[in-house]
UniProtKB/TrEMBL annotation:
The lineage of its organism: Eukaryota, Viridiplantae, Streptophyta, Embryophyta, Tracheophyta. Belongs to the PC-esterase family. TBL subfamily. It comes from the Eukaryota. Residues 1-271 form the Trichome birefringence-like C-terminal domain. This is Trichome birefringence-like C-terminal domain-containing protein. InterPro entries: TBL, TBL_C.
Length: 277
C-alpha cells in the first residue's frame, strides 16, 4: 500500500502498470472505495493499493475527490482515523511533501474538525513537518509488526516550474524540455525544501520499527524533461487544444509521465524488497 499525496499515487500507478502486464485478462480488477484505490491480482490473491492522505495526519484536504483546498489546515497529532486503514499490510510506502509547499507557514487547527473548531495557528513549515512525522513515527512504532510489515518512506519529489532554475531564460516552465539537466555540478533549486528532507531522514533513521528511506530527490531534480507538462488531465479531463497551447498556465510540472521516472523509484523499492527476502 502506498500512502500519501498525488506523487505517491503517481508511483502507485507506475507499480500497477509494471505488474498488470503479466496478469491474464479477466484476472485483475481496479476499484475505489473512498480514500482507498485497490488493484487486485486474482491468481496471486494480491493487491497493490493507494490511500489518499496528503499530510498523513487529518486535514481539511482529505476528501479524495474534492481536495483542491487553498486554505489548508491540519491536525498534526491526529492520525488514527487514517491509520486504521493501513494495518496488516505487507509493504507500506509513505510520503508527504507537495501539499506543504503552497505557503511558508502551515495552519494548525486549535481543537478538532469533528467538534467544528475553525481557529488555527500559523507555524513555520519545518516545525509542523517534524510534528507530523513524529506523530506518524509513533503510530508506526505502536501499530506495525516488523515481522509482517516492511515500511518505506519516500523523500520529496521536486518540481520544475521555473525554467530559470536551470538557466533556460526562454523556457515556459517544464514545457518542451526534452533532455535532463546535464550539468551535474550545477546547484539546483527546483522546489525542494531540504529542511524537510533532513527532518524525514533523521526521524526515519531513529525509529524502533525499521523504516527504509527511499531517496528519490537528487536524481529526480535533474529530470526537467520527465513531467507530464501539457499532456495531462485537469480536474479529471484531458486538456483542450486551447489549454495545451497555453503551457504557462496549464503545464503540469509536478507530476511525472508514465512510463517514466516513477518506474525508477519502483526499481529502488523492488530492489529493497527482493534484497530482504
Amino acid at each position: 500500500m502506498f500512502v500519501g499525496d498525488s506523487l505517491n499515487r503517481n508511483q502507485w500507478e507506475s507499480m500497477v502498470c509494471l505488474v498488470q502486464s503479466v496478469v491474464p485478462p479477466g484476472r485483475k480488477s481496479l476499484r475505489k472505495i473512498g480514500s482507498l484505490s485497490i488493484f487486485r491480482i486474482e491468481d496471486y490473491n494480491a493487491t497493490v493499493e493507494f490511500y489518499w492522505a496528503p499530510f498523513l495526519v487529518q486535514s481539511n484536504s482529505d476528501n479524495p475527490d474534492m481536495h483542491s483546498v487553498l486554505n489548508r489546515i491540519i491536525m498534526p497529532g491526529s492520525i488514527k482515523n487514517h491509520g486504521k486503514n493501513w494495518k496488516d499490510v505487507h509493504y507500506l510506502v509513505f510520503n508527504t511533501y507537495i501539499w506543504w509547499m503552497n505557503t511558508n507557514t502551515m495552519k494548525v487547527l486549535r481543537g478538532s474538525f469533528d467538534e467544528g473548531d475553525t481557529e488555527y495557528d500559523e507555524i513555520d513549515r519545518p516545525i509542523v513537518y517534524k510534528r507530523v512525522l513524529s506523530t506518524w513515527s509513533k503510530w508506526v512504532n505502536k501499530n506495525v509488526n516488523p515481522n509482517r510489515t516492511t515500511v518505506f518512506f519516500s523523500s520529496m519529489s521536486p518540481l520544475h516550474i521555473k525554467s530559470l532554475d536551470w538557466n533556460n531564460s526562454d523556457g515556459i516552465k517544464c514545457a518542451l524540455e526534452t533532455t535532463p539537466i546535464l550539468n551535474q555540478s550545477m546547484h539546483l533549486n527546483v522546489g525542494t525544501d531540504r529542511r524537510l528532507y533532513v527532518v524525514a531522514a533523521n526521524i526515519t533513521r531513529n525509529m524502533k520499527v525499521p523504516v527504509h528511506f527511499i531517496d528519490i530527490t537528487t536524481l529526480s531534480e535533474y529530470r526537467k524533461d520527465a513531467h507530464t507538462a501539457v499532456h495531462t488531465i485537469r480536474q479529471g479531463k484531458v486538456l483542450t487544444p486551447e489549454q495545451k497551447a497555453d503551457p504557462a498556465t496549464y503545464a503540469d510540472c509536478i507530476h511525472w509521465c508514465l512510463p517514466g521516472l516513477p518506474d525508477m523509484w519502483n526499481e529502488f523499492l523492488y530492489t529493497r524488497i527482493i534484497s530482504h527476502l
